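Support case: adenosine-5'-triphosphate complex. Customer-provided input:
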Amino acid sequence: MQGQSDSVPILAADRISKSFGSVPVLFSVSFDIRGGEVHALIGENGAGKSTLMKILSGIHEPTSGSIRLDGRNVDLPPNGQAEALGIVLIHQELNLAEQLTVEENFFLGRELTRNGLLDRAKMSTSVREHLQAIGLDISPDDRISDLSIAEKQMVEIVKAISRNARVLIMDEPTAVLTEAETALLFKQIERLKQQGVAIVFVSHKLAEVKAIADQITILRDGQLIATKPAQELTPDAMAQMMVGRELSDLFPPLIEPDIDAERVLQVQGLFAKGVHNISFELRQGEILGFAGLVGAGRTAVFEAICGISQMDGGDVRLKGQPVHFSSVAAARDAGMVYLTKDRKEKGLLLKQQMGINLTLLSLPKFVRHHLLNARQERDALERAIRRFDIRVRDHGVLAGDMSGGNQQKLLLAKVMEADPAIVIIDEPTRGIDVGTKQQIYHFIAALATEGVSIVLISSEMPEMIGMCHRVAVMREGRITGILTGDDINENEIVRYAAGLKKAGDDERLSA
Amino acid sequence: AYAQEKIKIGVSYPTPTHAWAAGMNWHAEAAAERLEALYPDIDIILVNSPDPSAQASALEDLVSVNQIDALVILPFESEPLTDPVLNVKKSGAFITVVDRGLSQPGIEDIYVAGNNPELGRVSAEYMKTRLKSGDNIVILRGIPTVIDTERFDAFMAEIEGSGINVLDHKHANWNRDDGFEVMQDFLSRFPDIDAVWAQDDDIAIGVVAALKQAGRDGDGMFVVGGAGMKETIKGIMDGETLIPIDVLYPPAMLATAMDVTVAKFKSNGPVAGRYILGATVITKENAESFYFPDSPF
Amino acid sequence: MSDSAPSGESKTRMPHFDIKIMGPAIALVLLCILGYVLNPAFVSEGNITNLLTRSSFIGIIAVGATFVITAGGIDLSVGSMAAVIAGIMIIVMNSAVGTFGTGVTTVLIGAGCSVILGLGAGWINGFLTTKGKIEAFIVTLGTMGIYRSLVTYFADGGTLSLDFAIRGTYRPIYYDSFAGLPVPVWMFILVSAVGWILLNRTAFGRYCMAIGSNEAVAKYSAINVDRIKTMTYVIQGLCVSLATIIYVPRLGSASSSTGVLWELEAIAAVIIGGTVLKGGYGRVGGTILGALILTTIGNILNFTDLISNYLNGTMQGLIIIIAVWLQRGEWGRSKRIKKAE
Amino acid sequence: MSDSAPSGESKTRMPHFDIKIMGPAIALVLLCILGYVLNPAFVSEGNITNLLTRSSFIGIIAVGATFVITAGGIDLSVGSMAAVIAGIMIIVMNSAVGTFGTGVTTVLIGAGCSVILGLGAGWINGFLTTKGKIEAFIVTLGTMGIYRSLVTYFADGGTLSLDFAIRGTYRPIYYDSFAGLPVPVWMFILVSAVGWILLNRTAFGRYCMAIGSNEAVAKYSAINVDRIKTMTYVIQGLCVSLATIIYVPRLGSASSSTGVLWELEAIAAVIIGGTVLKGGYGRVGGTILGALILTTIGNILNFTDLISNYLNGTMQGLIIIIAVWLQRGEWGRSKRIKKAE
Ligand SMILES: Nc1ncnc2c1ncn2[C@@H]1O[C@H](COP(=O)(O)OP(=O)(O)OP(=O)(O)O)[C@@H](O)[C@H]1O
Ligand SMILES: Nc1ncnc2c1ncn2[C@@H]1O[C@H](COP(=O)(O)OP(=O)(O)OP(=O)(O)O)[C@@H](O)[C@H]1O
Ligand SMILES: [Mg+2]
Ligand SMILES: [Mg+2]
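Agent response - structure generated as follows:
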């Protein structure tokens, strides 16, 4: 397959530039995609990766430059019609109609019909086959709104794969996936590669990139930095080329919280939808990890505690005082906030500007004499942009038009604006570039040192291991174990998460 | 571009939303044309309004923009327009009120009206001549407004003590479709109906259609409408038995009022007072003289 | 415009979904029982036939509205459109009598004219909404006013009446029955069936839902959003013209009061039937039940003199609210829902 | 319900945004020029005053509607609500005359009663929508019917009239001027100013926009969605009651035809003003202009007898559509937008 790389590229971008209004985003970028090759595109948040991919699939028109398909200059048709030419894009923003079913989304725009009517049996069978082929337990009749983000992403992937593309462009397909699902995806990518499909792979997970890519192109601030064979680059080298400087350790040194530190949050026997008998404690200044497979119920636990969903039973104490938050506002006022993992549906108002999103959760803070203090809000925005290194060229940009990683930073900033004493962060580094990840990790560690207690829910194993003082592992709605110290390693976590080991197995664990 | 020397007469009335009002509008437009042709220095401005508050607005506009010398008004409703008409009066205009009297006496210089209670009473009187004690009738009323209530109350007062049973009364909103549907339901509900008071010729058309559909238009069943629609009058002339009579509520009353108002400016004698037009019963004998084939009503 | 329904649905899907399917049917059955209790004549064959026939107008129009609303639009002009189409049909047929006589030809000319007008009027609404990029609410509010005033103008403020000579030929379309059901009911059944297939069994129906659910997704799926949206208005126009074709022979007339408030009734039927006002989820079957529910409420109120006539509107309003509340199946479930959230 | 506007806006934001702000103002200026050309008396002081005063009713109601629509709701009941509040106010004041005389006390009792009723009626709409989880469209269609029939009932099918004894005391509220402007205009200015501040400068307004944009995000952002939504209906009710307080002295009466179609006018004013019908983006300033535009159209049509009265509706419809089209600023820009997308 390596041999094919010197053939004519299927799709090539030639000195593409792009501006939104007067804001330039890409500067004369060239990019080739060959059959049977995985070409990875990496770069910092806002570097222009998604924009370039959208141009290559006809969604955006380039401001200047040309696109060649099989060596000939083409004007790609807009609105996903490039699929007819064999170019299929998996959007970074999930591109599924929520109220429709999996099957309906799967075949949207290219329904199978017989005598003018939908051939539902055939479509349903086809969807089921495709889902099973990749090993997914999703029914074609499930409504998208009922699926988890990871499931939605898998549906997108399977949908794209099923389209018999010549060029398959995947914009951060793995951001919301677990390692197991990523493995499934990679198996498919290998298969497609054998079939001669050209694949573009955008990701911030550099180890993945190293594992799957044949060629790697690096973008920085809309400029093409380099295109190199994957063998020539280590993840460290990639990171360095992306951010343009040497990266020190990804994770900050862990400072153990005071052993006598106050137990700020005590949960005893919590029951809620999807979770059973949850008990744990959180000390001041501690970073407590919550690990587990997708759907293990980690999110559900904290949604119940923070007043987002109903609690069916159990005792929650904040600094020793029993509390029962009936609303998110009550939890926030008590100093506890929750950062959602679903930034599109639950996190940000995509059609509003950054500033409005930033202060929404902590708005009472900005009220003076019953009125909003615009200056204070503006200052907060300036501060957040600096503090979280939000890279936008125009502060008036709508949240939906920001790059994925910058949206995530904005969401983090929004939650921190509430000055929480306890913060639950659910998948905080989804779609974040390494450079920024490092900043976020240092930021979280600094918060903990300042005495903020943190619950970190994450599906990224290194994050758990590198950041947490203790890690609770959940499986099927129950806490199966709480790990400390050297027990926090991949092996242990996976064993608890997969149900191979339970807390009862080892007394020492029930902290 | 406005000629100050002209005598401006504003004519304000509700937007015709049913056939009777359209007939009134037709007569008024015909009168305006006739009067303007007859007297070159008379300028008649016809304005119609969809609701009382729009009519109040129209009055303001007639004064502030057109600077009228006289107003002929058929108020949407009496109460809401009393004050606005009073304001027009204060601007010095001559006031002619048509059909619905204002709720404060003495504002208008001339009052021209039909007679709603009389319409109800005359209809009931006719019912009594055709029916005997123990017979059943149903009533289809108009839109719930003062007019409807006056007609209905007078009808009920007259029918009282005659032994005729009023089975039920529902609003059919002076509308053919509603007349049809309400009558369909009355027919399903009451196996024995001897006559229908539909109060209005539009409703009557719907009622007749329902009767024919149910095959209950024989056996001396009859329907009394009202207002004087040309088709109904034509039917009476032709000897139709299902709608044997009609009770006139003259659609030309606005035109009459315009004539009288112009006369105030053009004749020498003093013009003032009240002109109450009767609720004439139209029968086969006199139908001819109420038949205007060109009118939309 | 609460979207509590879909979000509720998304959480506890299976049971809720079932209730949504069954809800309108249950509400209708309860209404019928109420009607029977108030007056047994309610279930007489004649009354049931009347009821079905009456539902046909609103029902046929509401089937069209289901498409418009599912695709995220709204059409306020349907009542006025029906009036002006009826008016023009009558004018055309009256003048065709001279040339083509009083036979079927003239009626066909009238019907053809109605269909062309309906398609045209629908297309205008669609074009202004999609290409003119004006909110559907404003476009159709505007055309509503325009059509209403045009029919008034054509009728000279009064009533346009069909030539008596042609009525005999045309009457059967409303008054005759076929296999025990009046022709309008057959038309309603036909339109519903076609509508159901179109919405649930064709790509077009899916496109409507996709557009109503998320226009950007639809666009990126290579769906011609503007064309599909325009099509929904054209279908709505066609439905209005079909409803008009069976309306005209009933009383043989059209006036400015024809079809007043039909738009609200049609939209209400659609929403009562479970379609989501903000688009993305439509149910033709529910719409049919919604139309029947609305007609039945009016019918029941004519069957009793327990309450003052003046309070008919109050009863109607209360029953609509209660019917929808019942069919949402939220009673006794508020707790569960809260938990699910 | 096209959301072309916001999506268009998001693409070529800066210039488009400006046009959206300026659009309604430009449309209004063009209308005024048209009025002046048709009849120079249009710009007479008397007429301008009339125009402003008339806009006050719909304007005040539309300010309330801006909140409801911004938060993703809709209220169809405002016209009927105004009628029933006016009716009850009159009944209350008439019976208060006996005890409290014909002075200011009685008027204040009437006004207080109006405010309480407005708040209550709004709360009912809000409660049924949020806690009852019934679509706002259905809830307010229901209450619309209920209120309309209640006023008919109270008036016994006729008209409720304010005691003439009290009219003298109350009249000035509508007919008197203060610093050159009639009292209703001052009320309109006050309501608009408060509304503008509330929507643009308080947390509440921000919450309305957030809820209209995405209820789930709002909920996760510690916003009490149900409470804020209910509040928008309560504000709408309050606005209706204020409009009623200045409406009653104008005509001194209430009947079943009071306030008919005000709901459509109010919603139209809001949408013409640039608020998005599906929620998430609201503009009180635009709403005020929208109300002025609607009133001016009616006013202009009273100024000319160039066209048949029957065609007023046609003109009105055309002007509304054209005005919105002009203010969308889409003319000649269709190409640019396409590219930007
Ligand atoms: N429609 C748009 N309008 C205005 N600006 C836009 C639009 N789309 C993207 N941008 C801007 O273009 C820049 C590049 O965005 P892009 O999404 O391509 O970044 P990215 O490399 O994919 O980043 P990430 O890794 O965070 O996804 C960002 O600054 C973004 O705000
Ligand atoms: N198997 C399930 N069936 C139904 N609902 C579920 C199931 N699993 C989770 N949920 C619901 O989905 C929501 C989110 O679940 P949850 O995602 O808690 O797990 P998680 O461990 O946080 O998963 P992820 O790794 O995706 O973040 C909760 O409201 C929960 O009630
Ligand atoms: Mg991206
Ligand atoms: Mg989770």
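The longest strand of chain B covers residues 7-14.

Case will auto-close in a few days if no follow-up is received.
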